[in-house]
Amino acid sequence: MKKVLLVTAVMFGFSATVFAQEDEAVTVTDEELHKYAVLMDSVEAMKENVKTELEVMVDNNEEMTKARYNDLIKVIDDEEKLAGAEATEAEIAFINSVVARKEALTDTISSRFKTIATEYVTPSVYKKVKTALKKDPGVKDRYKLVLTEVTAARKAEESAGGEASTAGEVEGSNR
């Protein structure tokens, strides 16, 4: 009889733990969604800035067309194909400078992402929201709305001439 009671108690305790974990994963506050959305929108804004900066680099290069750049970037790591494309040393050097700039900017985004995720969102909230987005369609729908609002606010601020809030600027804000 004691064994049956013990097994029942253990099973009940296990069930309560499982249900508590499920409830915890689904319970995401609007503030948590907002912080996560600010982080993700900031990363997207930084990616857009990187893309724009790299496009400007290519556009401002008077010795290479966009089409030529696009052809050579595909084969930049293949000496034989570069030779076949008759790439000049100047073209190779330029493409390598664009690649280096992209890597530097990507490292900056990664660093800012980590800082914001740690200091503004917090690791526990980040993990909680990310998990909930995968498991709960309701949370995902709420997140989409919040992200749309955050993105619209950033773009309105940008078009009004203000500086956009990015991961580097959000760290100390109360957004």
Strand content: under 5%
Structural class: mainly alpha
Reading the helices and strands in chain order gives HHHHHHHH
The value of Rg in angstroms is 24 Å
Number of domains: 1
The biggest beta sheet, please? none
Helix content: over 70%
Contiguous helical run count:
8
Distance between the termini: 58 Å
Low-confidence stretches: 1-25, 166-175
Mean pLDDT: 84
Number of strands: 0
Shape: elongated
Task: Provide structural commentary.
This protein is mainly alpha-helical and 175 residues long. It has one domain. 82% of the residues lie in helices and 0% in strands. It contains eight helices and no strands. The chain has helices at 2-26, 30-60, 66-73, 79-84, 89-121, 123-135, 137-159, 167-170. Helix 5 crosses helix 6 (123-135). The termini are far apart. The relative contact order is 0.15. The model is unreliable at 1-25 and 166-175 (pLDDT under 50).
Question: What's this, in brief?
Answer:
This protein has helices spanning 2-26, 30-60, 66-73, 79-84, 89-121, 123-135, 137-159, 167-170. With 175 residues, the protein is mostly helical.
